[in-house]
Design a protein that fits this description.
It is a single chain. This protein has helices at 7-14, 29-34, 37-41, 59-72, 86-90, 101-112, 132-145, 176-185, 200-206, 217-221, 229-233, 242-258, 264-267, 280-290, 298-309; strands spanning 22-28, 50-55, 76-81, 119-127, 150-158, 190-194, 212-214. With 315 residues, the protein is of the alpha/beta class. It has 2 domains: 7-225, Aldolase class I (TIM Barrel, Alpha-Beta Barrel); 242-309. Helix 4 (59-72) runs parallel beside helix 6. The radius of gyration is 20 Å and the shape is globular. The mean pLDDT is 93.
């Protein structure tokens, strides 16, 4: 979710669900230690709870980054052991850590030693031609022995040789049954399922087996589905209508505009909000064409919303 789930995206998603756990983009430990911490770790208070997704494989650096993140108010630290990008591979972290469970265990222990907030791990079921069952169970057993009790498992192997990062999101087959076997074997662990989940009904079905579900691309590309999370998965309140979420988000946008933030940097996360509804094309076109213009303001959002609502059937 690099370049997707930034602070503006998370603030927008929070208008649609109060209960879902929101994740940051993956940030490297080096970036947290040496970079612009406000830009990398900054958030708005309503975003809570927020998970910082860290990338790295040096226990000392990860511990320092985790300590800094806790000081910023992050609610959880997650170590990424699932990203297959070439950039991540060159840094010897991400999915390649599936072959280094002892190193991951050391990283988890180091972070847990300096923070009081939870430390979790996101991982694949395997990499390349390593046997999935043995790789997954060995990884989970060793890392959980270091004190990690929460694992978000992307139910695909990552092919670091021969597949692009984009292909790694679709080509390796999903193996939900293997992750379900893990949950049955380790009922003491919190196992969250990730990969290929695209609807609220699918979430509800998987929640009969797993402790949680994680949505990535589906939540970003069709964020309107998040409006049903609290009502249908947590039994709280009524579904949030997309138009109501836009109006709730307007004060945030106004405040950021006053600080000099561009409209497009916020509305780019909203393009798929009305996916599948009448007027969705006009919504996307207006935001795509007008929001990037210099000086664009809330009037662009109002115009786009009006174009959608003109197409909605009368109540």
């Amino acid at each position: 979710m690099m370049d997707w789930t930034d602070r503006h995206c998370r603030a927008f998603h929070r208008t649609l669900t109060k209960r879902a756990l929101l994740w940051t983009e993956m940030v490297t430990a080096d970036a947290v230690i040496h970079g612009d911490r406000e830009r990398l770790l900054g958030y708005s208070p309503p975003e809570h709870p927020v998970v910082l997704q860290l990338g790295g494989s040096d226990p000392v650096k990860l511990a320092e980054a985790a300590r800094i993140a806790e000081g910023f108010g992050c609610d959880e630290i997650n170590l990424n052991c699932g990203c297959p990008s070439e950039r991540v591979q060159s840094g010897a972290f991400g999915a390649c850590l599936m072959a280094e469970p002892d190193l991951v265990a050391g990283c988890v222990a180091a972070m847990r030693g300096v923070v009081s907030i939870p430390v979790s791990v996101k991982n694949r079921i395997s990499i390349d031609d390593l046997p999935a069952h043995e790789t997954l169970f060995t990884f989970i057993d060793k890392v959980s022995a270091a004190g990690c009790s929460v694992f978000t498992v992307h139910a695909r192997a990552a092919w670091l040789k021969g597949l692009s990062p984009k292909q790694n999101r679709d080509v390796p087959p999903l193996d939900y049954s293997l992750v379900a076997e893990l949950k049955r074997a380790r009922p003491d662990l919190t196992i969250i399922l990730n990969g290929g989940i695209a609807t609220i009904d699918q979430c509800a079905e998987h929640l009969e087996t797993f402790d949680g579900v994680m949505l990535g691309r589906a939540a970003y590309q069709t964020p309107g589905l998040l409006g049903a999370v609290d009502a249908h998965l947590f039994g709280e309140g009524a579904p949030i209508a997309a138009g109501d979420a836009v109006r709730t988000f307007e004060p945030y946008i106004a405040a950021r505009l006053a600080e000099g933030t561009s409209l497009h940097s916020m509305t780019r996360h909203m393009l798929g909000l009305f996916a599948g509804q009448p007027g969705a094309r006009q919504w996307r076109r207006i935001l795509s064409e007008q929001a990037p213009r210099p000086g664009a303001g809330l009037e662009v959002l109002s115009t786009a919303l009006a174009a959608v609502e003109e197409n909605l059937p009368a109540a």
